[in-house]
Amino acid sequence: MGRNRRLTLLGAGAALAWGLSGALAPQAEAADLTIKLGWTSSAGETDPYAVGARAFKKAVEAESKGRIEVQLFPNRALGDEKPLLEGMRLGTVDAGIITNAVVAQIEPAFQINDMPFLYADEAQAQKVLDGPVGDKLRKKLESKGVVLLGYMEGGFRAMINNVRPVSTPADVKGVKYRVMQNPVYIAMFSSLGGNAVPMAWAETFTAVQQGAIDGLEIPPTVIDQNKLFEVTKYLSLTNHTYSVIELLMSKRVFDKQPDDLKKAIVKAAAEATKQQRAASLAASQSVIATLESKGMKVNKVADMAAFRESVKPVYEQFKTSIGPDIMEDVLTQVK
Question: What's CA 256's distance to the chain center, in Å?
Answer without folding.
Answer: 25
